[in-house]
Amino acid sequence: MPHETPAAAPPLDRLQRWMQAVIVHPGTIGEALVAAEAANDVAPERLEEVVRPSWSLTAAERVDVYHGMYLLRMTEALESDYPALRHFLGAEAFEDLVREYVQAYPSRSYTLNRLGDHLPRFLAEGPARPNGEFLHDLAQAELAITQVFDEEESPPVDGESLRAVPPKGWGTVSLRPTRALRLLNLRYGVFGHLDAAKHDRPAPRPRRRATFLAFYRRAYSVMRLELGRQEHALLSALTSGVPLGEALARSAREMKESKREQAVFRCFRTWLAEGLFSAIEVGESSSAGGGQVDH
Amino acid sequence: MAGNRWGFPDLGLGVGLRTTHYSHILSQQPKIGFFEVLTENYLDTGGRPLFILDQIAERYPLVMHGVSLSIGSTDPLDFDYLGKVKELARRTRALWVSDHVCWTGVLGRNTHDLLPLPYTEASLRHTVQRVRAVQEFLERPLVLENPSTYLEFTPNAMTEWEFVGRLAEESDCGLLFDVNNVYVSGFNHGYDPRAYIDAIPADRVCQYHLAGHTHKGTHILDTHSDHVVDPVWELFGHTIRHVGLRATLLEWDANIPAFEVVHAEVQKAQAWRDQEVTRAA
Fold this sequence. Notes:
The structure holds 2 protein chains of 2 kinds.
Chain A: H1 12-23, H2 29-34, H3 36-39, E1 51-52, H4 59-81, H5 83-89, H6 91-104, H7 119-125, H8 132-150, H9 159-163, E2 174-177, E3 181-188, H10 191-198, E4 208-218, E5 221-227, H11 229-239, H12 244-253, H13 260-273, E6 277-282, E7 291-294
Antiparallel strand pairs in A: 2-6, 3-4, 4-5, 6-7
Chain B: E1 13-16, H1 22-28, E2 34-38, H2 48-59, E3 62-65, H3 79-92, E4 97-100, H4 121-138, E5 142-145, E6 152-153, H5 160-171, E7 174-178, H6 179-189, H7 193-199, E8 205-211, E9 214-215, E10 220-221, H8 230-243, E11 247-251, H9 259-280
């Protein structure tokens, strides 16, 4: 409607600062309007000088439409990234967690896809809560899944590259991991909880046991592997650039005699076949000379 | 019926591209005029979303629709974001790039909501200058959508349609006219949506949006969660009479049904287009 006698407008930056402070406040609209961050820019008793009541809502109720939608939107975004955490906690406890989390780590990005990047850290460092260590581990696994999903595509090393490595060069090769690979070392099992959320089954009780996981991507789908302790150590060594010969020797030393070489090589072949590596670099000390077989 | 001043084509009827419909679209290749992609869903990802998008871009015309430009914010423009938008537009050969007349956050934060601007001379000047800067950077006209709003600022010195019309004229940008948003805001603020429609500069309108909403009794929320209601279809007909035929898109973002349902909903727009063409002939 045309406005013949507009009220004096607060400067745009002040108006926006005020409105944002009200919208993101974790309490009720009444609490939000009187909170210092908002009241410093617009005194609560002067609300109608800034926001006009409508035919059906007061000025405060109109601001509350935005205030209410903020937490809803943050919760929806985090639910889609942390479905198993949401499934385990239930709707109310999850919303409480989101309310606390977005106060500590509000979105500073143009995308909601990365809103949850700090949630595992928040669960580790934030207020103590029941099953805190388990929640942290579950959140770490779900964060790894979203990171693997969104990573840049890096094609896996192919057969031709493998054949190009001279027989005596294998001991010195270094393997570059595909970007879409995350290795986790957790205190709790989490696969049961990921599956329970996916199939809408009751979440199992958290069970403490050393858990070693790999999440990776194949044909644009996120895959997972549960690893043994030695397998995890070997894969960690390889992905951090330790030459293959040295990593295999380290790993074999830690295994029982009977399981040694076959087991280690079986793992290695599986990882190659699953596309966990994107390049092979032949070390300088190789008789075949240095070089890189890249893809 | 005249077109828009940039010659952006009337692509017919399209729908918003949503993850749940990917496999149907790729396997069934439905006959549809175009898809609109949510810009931010394809930035900072190198995985499946971009892989699928590349395939769809090979087969259909695409337009890009963003929610994080924050054109009215008093924070500095984010040129890192804009660079990624520009690259995605190049990659997908998007026919145009749109966002909203709104702001989404300040002090480095993003509320991820389309927040209303005060309709004052100062905020108009501020926004015009930013639209010009964005257009210069993107090297193409920016297309801006009228938002649904739930509050009005007391200091408003002009109507929303005056603000949007002047913004378009003074910054030389295009408009994405959302018919449902005008209906929603008209109800919430107590104005006649036809007054809005009759005032918009027709030659700047490049695209229409249609969507469903949620009626709360005291106000309407723009939820994109249902079928388009009859009064919005009536307004759509009125809009075509005033503006002309434009690429028309249905948005469905919550409780998303099967692709066929969304497709059938947007095809209802064809009857309105035919009716208005006949009337104009």
